[in-house]
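Consider one such protein record:
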Amino acid sequence: MKNFGSGKCPVMHGGSTTQETSVTKWWPKSLNLDMLHQHDKKTDPLGSNFSYKEELKNLDFSALEKDMHTLMTTPQDWWPADYGHYGGLMIRMAWHAAGSYRISDGRGGAGTGNLRFAPLNSWPDNTNLDKARRLLWPIKRKYGNSISWADLFILAGNIAYESMGLKMFGFSYGREDIWHPEKDIYWGSEKEFLAPSEERYADLKDTSTMENPLAATHMGLIYVNPEGVNGNPDPQVTALHIRETFARMAMNDEETVALTAGGHTVGKAHGNGDAGALGVEPEGATVEEQGFGWKNPAGHANANETVTSGIEGAWTTNPTQWDDGYFEMLFNHEWELKKSPAGAWQWEPTNIKEEDKPINAADPSKRNNPIMTDADMAMKVDPIYREICLKFKDDQEYFSDTFARAWFKLTHRDMGPKTRYIGPGIPSEDLIWQDPVNPGNKSYDESAVKSKISQSGLSISDRIAIAWDSAKSFRGSDLRGGANGARIALSPLNNWASNEPSRLSKTLDVLKPIADEFGVSLADTIILAGNTAVEEAAQSAGFEIEVPFHKGRGDATQDMTDEESFSNLEPAADAFRNWCSNEPIASAEELMVDQAQLLGLTAPEMTVLIGGMRVLGANHTGNDQGLFSDRLGVLSNDFFVNLTDMNNTWHIVGDNKYEVKDRSSGNSKWSASAVDLVFGSNSILRSYAELYAQDDNKEKFVNDFVQAWNKVMNADRFEKN
């Protein structure tokens, strides 16, 4: 009998059970609406009633952290610890979990525990981090639902540094796990890992031309190639790429140097073997490997045989101690290029005392040369980085504090505002990158404020526009932006083209005095303005509704606003107001789906909001695209009724411009954008459009619009929970 060792049965089956059998493979340009419905509760084994925030209340933080300290120095035979300490491995795991974050779209980062899943679990840069997670499994098993994998990854890095002598800046619990790979993150178009960098740069010599939102030089890396650009050592060129990649992760030069030096103060790189002999990554491994990847045919999993990056060696004399050894080693020696046993380029000292060499990671009776990567040499060669390094070299306390703060930022950048932080290690200091907001007043007469707004002379479209523009900056990816703080009145948001600066200024001139009169925040006033408009429009459609409202938004000041950081939230398009910049980075329809995903909307919610925003007359600069109604300002389902009316025909007249004509007479009726028409052309979206076009769903349309509107208006209200 044939042995089907891979688990195959000798018959075909009827299920579409692999990615290659996707029904959309025939039409690869079709919209990926799946990204709007990822992380559905159906995939979550913990169920809809599970609350991680509540579970954390039962966690013995001290006991957990004590167990983590013990773990660091308790070697396991199946994966022995370098120097008897797992700290370096755990730090790398935490770093690589957090380091996938990019500021352009806020995606990536450590907040979801995505390191468990493809593609990150199988990136070349994450080789052997599968072992780090398995080392943590006994801890996870013991503490169960009261600690997420996402929190555990970062906690492991913090405890590792603590156990090596560094005073950490702080730590927050509260990251919640996902249960399948993220479908919304674009990691690059390359078809192979470590493809030449040219594939993601318009000009490799101009680092700013790296394709947005990417933040690494190669597919499968966190930042830069440690051997140099495209594996060719040149520290000065590498420095330019480091500056760009770290900036795209929201780090300035000082933070970049601190993280580079602090990350390489402890631990070692692994390249003591034949990299080509390693087995496949976890995602491609056979079932008997049980999720392990990169199997080493040498057999024993110790530091003298392990291949990870291909570079081999430690950076400092004492790789398990937090000290100033990195700068001492870097600046007190001359360095030359050598090849590691795995064939990777690395820098080694031309002359070094035996006692200054780090001991062998598996045999303390031996010593080996230290190493530097091309990125390390960039710290010495680049004049800006060099100056910062020398400053750190002369002031160890300042270096330690700067690193601890940068590490905290690295590992918490995508957690959102401080109000979401949980646990005993939360720093008391407010940091500008946390987007702080002053507390808001809740003791005011909501009805009186609404009445004043309604009598102010502001049109429905003016009120809808400012409320939407205030809330639309929210990104569910890193939980930034939104209406709380009223930053739409501050730079840079008040100058964004998508926010119609002139119109915005006039509307604010009306709302600010009302806010002052009633002692209510401008942020609350703006949302109340939008809510009154929705209520009046619904009333005109024959429905008496009240939009839910939660008092207590606060206002930020300009000093509380990191202008450079907020500039990354500026949209290239706003489908809900039918606006697209002159140089869009993708089709208007694709940008709509991306925007909806960042706002946390489902496809039905996206659909009903588009239809409602059109009939409310909320289009950018009052453009007439998609206004399929003769009664603007009425919250009706007219958009969908006329979109699905077969008495109309649809004609392209220019780039993203279409004309709607009467089928019988040929007379022009309306204009439209591709965003408008995709709700009729895409089969999934059309199914929603037809639902809302039904005569018996007029009330459902209004109610669903209000629900979706309220969701966006409150997306950033973490403090009310």
Q: What stands out?
A: The two ends are 62 Å apart (CA to CA). The mean pLDDT is 94.
